[in-house]
Amino acid sequence: MKSEILNEDGVHALYRKHLGRDVESQEVLEAHLKGHQTLESLQASILNSSEYLNKNLSPDIWSFLPRNLVRPAPVIDVDVSPSELNAIFERIAGEWSKLGETDPHWSVITSEKYRHANFDQHEHDFYNSGKHLASVIEVFAKRNGVQIDRDHVLELGCGTGRVTAALASSFNKVTGVDVSAGHLRLCRIALEKRGIYNGSFHHLTSPAAVDDLPTCSFFFSTIVLQHNPPPLIGYLLDRLLAKVLPGGAALFQVPTHTPGYEFHIKKYLSSKKPSDFEMHCFPMNRVFRLLHDHGFRVHEVIMDTWTGMPGSHTFFASKSQ
Ligand SMILES: C[S@@+](CC[C@H](N)C(=O)[O-])C[C@H]1O[C@@H](n2cnc3c(N)ncnc32)[C@H](O)[C@@H]1O
Fold it and tell me: Which of 68, 128, 225, 250 is least enclosed by beta carbons within 10 angstroms?
């Protein structure tokens, strides 16, 4: 199918063709028009929906194939209105800002060693773990024969600078971005304490403020996106992958197949904040779509153990010159 701009007629036609029915409400119709620019994009989403798969897969298939291969796509709302996106952001920024004032290092790595009262004794271990993590970039680059442009790395969710400090020594410049002013303050202090002066720090105060961030040659983010609901993950990846200049690359982690995970925007916004950290998931096909739309070539997607449960992946991709 050719890439055609999506309009109301197109939505109705795709529904009739693939689902054999009409769109259930004006609200759903508008959400599709907001969330998908082309017919192709909505068609991909319909063909991946549980409704379509349940209708079209033979019941026998469930009995002899690994279940996860033939499981219909779970309901994960990714496309939401700007006000819903802002509401999600406010909630996440509020949760992390509070942690930034109460127990910032522990909120990064939830070990008793890093509780406020114990941190001084274990500071070395904490920042050393960040060195190991930053060195993963070299491993991925070597394994895939990718030359890293070391001009400027942008780290989303830099926290208290655990990895930022190490990134600063392998790139000419590092920009640490965080939604929590408390974390960011400690990040700045951690770098200064180590005599590192090639860092800049950005307090992200709204989704729109992402547009004010600088361009970069490398985008890095681990154990951050997992704490953001899917619409915010999609938004951040979209805007930040666009900031990577030609010849640059990206390494980031995001859960993509958490068993049993679903996300319903209306339910989420009307629910109470969890007492624990929020954990979320973003469909892998949407990550691929974003990487493709921003001109990246994907080199590797490796299953990782960041979340302590199955389904998290680390993506490594580069943009040609
Ligand atoms: C678990 S900590 C990880 C910190 C750092 N990446 C590390 O590995 O040491 C998550 C950090 O991401 C920040 N964060 C969460 N969501 C964010 C978002 N949407 N944009 C920027 N920062 C975010 C939090 O404030 C917190 O500092």
Answer: 68
